[in-house]
Amino acid sequence: MAKRTFSSFEIFLIFLLVMMTGITVALLSLLFITSGTIENHTGKYRDGYHIGVGRADCTGQVSDINLMGFSKTGQYARGILTRLYSRAFILAEPDGSDRVVFVSIDIGMVSQRLRLEVLSRLQNKYGSLYRRDNVILSGTHTHSGPAGYFQYTTFVIASEGFSNRTFEYMVAGIVKSIEIAHTNMKPGKIFINKGTVDGAQINRSPTSYLWNPQSERARYSSNTDKEMVLLKMVDLNGEELGLISWFAIHPVSMRNTNHLVNSDNVGYASYLFEQEKNKGYLPGEGPYVAAFASSNLGDVSPNVLGPHCTNTGESCENNISHVILFQASMCVAMGPGQDMFESTQIIGRKIYDKAKELYESASQEVTGPLASAHQWVNMTDVTVWLNSTHTAKTCKPALGYSFAAGTIDGFGTLNFTQGMTEGDSFWDSLRDQVLGKPSEEIKECHKPKPVLLHTGELLKPHPWHPDIVDVQIVTLGFLAITAIPGEFTTMSGRRLRQAVREEFEAYGMLNMTVVISGLCNVYTHYITTYEEYQAQRYEAASTIYGPHTLSAYIQLFRVLAKAIATDTVANLSSGPEPPFFEQLIVVRLGKGYWDPYETHQTFLTVEKYEATSATWQIIHNDASWETRFYWHKGLLGLSNATIQWHIPDTAQPGSYRIKYFGHSRKQDLLKPAVLLSFESSPSVFEVITTW
Questions:
Q1: What is the mean pLDDT of the chain?
Q2: What is this structure's pTM?
Q3: Which of 270, 294, 295, 301 is an active site residue?
């Protein structure tokens, strides 16, 4: 038999066939291995996560301390409408290998000092279990909580000092809520849902929004983010544990004329949800925890009737300087109610109603591994890549003229207006004499912002603004929570979400849901887009690191997203650690006044007499929306307390009494003062009927 020979072409075909067969076998083997890995990986989460929820009081002082948010002189706390709470959620992988903590706190914003102290106490108790990378602290941004818990001089001045009492109440409440959540952890499942909230918000700087490119604006149906993202948490038996909701709205339904400590519209939504789920419990009690957290709310107002001139009733925007001295305050945004209390309830109920709808229909389960990434960054010195060939820099902090104008939700009191792109010789001269002149470098870097306060160059008694800022992302499967150290405007939030989502997709993590969680970890005022910055309304004047601040954050959060997606978080540098200052300027308390400085479980109760058991049953406390506690400073160390019960139509006929719980200061000659607790109750009264 003749020997078979092959041509060069046939040999090439045989070689190609063998190679293709080998490649096919390799790919099939890889697919088999990978599919097995994926099956095992997702199988780990088929039974969900370990979930713990906790809530703790962090109210603190309710008198003689500034309320934080409006920075209005004389807006001191003089009582309480609702309590303030820290709501903690711990989510852990079934084997406990990784976990994340999200805490929503009824305060104006989280200060750096607050976060550092909380992390220190957690480390002392739990070691390395709860860390800077896996713990997010987020403020709801109520403007009706106490101030005084900051270390940077700008905020210390706004607070009229540092209050160690308030600081301790807040730290203790936050830590306690995490401890409760840690103790209550159990296997459970998380479900996610999204929906549109209508009629609850407007953009308070619509002319700034219009500076963004038309092509970008055309992609969105509104100049505010109307979407609510909600997480529903249940245990494996279906028992409801809690929820976290993110929605962009300023909690300023309670105006800058308010003096009662309260959690505003988002707090009212929490109140309604927790009361519904914790049947038979007083407000602030019961196992179910509902957090309504902040998002990209920078230019979003709940005062949906919009700004109107108080003297003419005409619509306005307090735009540029077309007002005379002291008249910018004539342009004020109005809520939907007859007063701020009703407006708070209306907006809060809209948020609650949508959350309830989303909660009841939530069916998409969140599964997948947990991860977290964090860095400290010197935000005064970030090189921003504008494109492949051009860069820009962030700036040392500075506040512009329109910062002093305030907003349509809370106006300033001097002749500053929004939209100022030029300074004023009088104020420049006064600043130069008192604080010194800003450098040409800082003025040039912040253009077109006219610098009013060059805070990045003011270092006494301590720096006026932070240089070192936290950036942080945690992920739960396909959900990414970005912890934002300030107030992003609507379009800023949209750009960041898109950039982070694209970064995840570039490295194989597809279809990620990205949430903006606002007022986290350290406060740095506002973050506008570069285009909005040119308009120099209040939000832009308060973008303290200059026109490229947003681009810097986008760049930094991309780094975190890539690290999570590529499993290289361990290679991230921690960055420069922020300072913890001592010997801060302290708040001067009213000498001799003790009642509202001392913490109470409640300052009041409303009690109903039950004839069958011959006992008084507590039906309301000072966390109830229906009660109001007013404190009035008197003379010679005396004070007056007024308690109101706004009787709801659900009240049952019967005998009632109101009790007050307070403290008095007894001072005997040549003896130290003694603090004595007391309680009092006026006469019993009858509720006959309600209407």
A1: 91
A2: 0.91
A3: 301
